[in-house]
Amino acid sequence: MNLQPTLRIIADEVEIIDCLVDNKEIFKTFDTNKTAAFLVGEDFHLVFYLSDNEPGNRFVMYIVEDFSINEECMAFIVKQIEEQIQQNHNVYIMKQARNKVLDMLYMTDTFRALFGKTNVKEQDEYYY
């Protein structure tokens, strides 16, 4: 599902497991809830494994393309996670995931510099 051109939500378990394996992020066990956050190039990936869900509905992955300049998509994910926390759904793992996303959000300026992107704030300053 594409909510925006730069945000995808994937529920296909095979695709998610392949992505985890390809990026050396596969979980060692599948007995408890897990989350992983990692970069593939400039794209941010957030994976959930919810062990209590029905088979075929245990994995979900968010991908924010070029995350360092798509902060609104990262903020959307944080909002979605916070809603899950408020509803008391998998609170521990959701808080872990929220912290991972927030850590990346706080570092967007650093990643933009690393990726050679012009800071959005700097672009606005050139017009004054």
Spell out the key features of this protein.
128 residues, five-stranded antiparallel β-sheet, globular
Beta-strand segment tally = 5
Widest sheet, order of strands: 1-2-5-4-3
Q: Rg to the nearest angstrom?
A: 16 Å
What does the overall shape look like?
globular
Note the quaternary state here.
Answer: single chain
Roughly what percent helix?
40-55%
Detail the poorly predicted runs. 123-128
Mean pLDDT: 89
Order of helices and strands: EEHEEEHHHH
Q: Note the beta-strand portion.
A: 15-25%
- Give the N-to-C terminal Cα separation: 40 Å
Number of helices: 5
Largest sheet composition: 5 strands, antiparallel
SS-based class:
alpha+beta
Task: Walk me through this protein's architecture.
- The protein is of the alpha+beta class.
- Helices cover 44% and strands 21% of the residues.
- The chain is built from five helices and five strands; from the N terminus they run E-E-H-E-E-E-H-H-H-H.
- Strands 1-2-5-4-3 form a five-stranded antiparallel β-sheet, with helices on both faces.
- The longest helix is centred in the middle third of the chain and has 16 residues.
- The C terminus is likely disordered.
